[in-house]
């Protein structure tokens, strides 16, 4: 099974069809793992915002049914892929951000564990997700954002990647489109 993603692949359910080129991001500050509020609509130049459902904590169980939810697994390998390719994004002048509905404290702990140097944004109240209509799923009575990536320029969408699969190779896919 080497080289194959062992969990179910997501299908395109149309949940991101409205995230089209030219759409402006909402203006709001999100807490970040860098301990500063970041407004993605105010980021000048090109940026990548990859949205992921959840990063686990060593020793803690995944949410209920996680193994059976298409597209749920892979947030850590996806984040590590962007981490590993940061120099290549940087030489192209592209900033990288990750975002989930987890708290900033959870993201700071994950960033330390995984050596993530770019900001992870917290949309714990789903205000940003609601403003953009980002797709979600639910398990165990908790909502999670579906995995997608926005390629941005000056606070506007250039391209949306949805669904994202496999997540461990997604950073290279995004880099290849630049």
Provide an overview of this structure.
- This protein is an alpha+beta fold and 178 residues long.
- It has one domain: 3-Layer(aba) Sandwich (Glutaredoxin).
- Helices cover 23% and strands 23% of the residues.
- The protein is built from 5 helices and 9 strands, in the order βββααβαβαββββα.
- The strands form 2 sheets. The protein has a 7-stranded mixed sheet.
First-last Cα distance: 31 Å
How many independent structural domains?
Answer: 1
The total of beta strands comes to: 9
* CATH superfamily descriptor: Glutaredoxin
**Strand order within the widest sheet?**
2-1-5-4-3-8-9
Keywords:
seven-stranded mixed sheet, globular, Glutaredoxin, 23% helix
Write the layout of secondary structure elements.
Elements: E1 29-32, E2 38-39, E3 46-51, H1 75-84, H2 86-91, E4 95-100, H3 104-114, E5 120-122, H4 127-132, E6 136-139, E7 142-145, E8 148-153, E9 156-161, H5 170-177
Parallel strand pairs: 3-4, 4-5
Antiparallel strand pairs: 1-2, 1-5, 3-8, 6-7, 8-9
Describe the structure in brief.
The protein has 178 residues and is an alpha+beta fold. It has 5 helices and 9 strands, in the order βββααβαβαββββα.
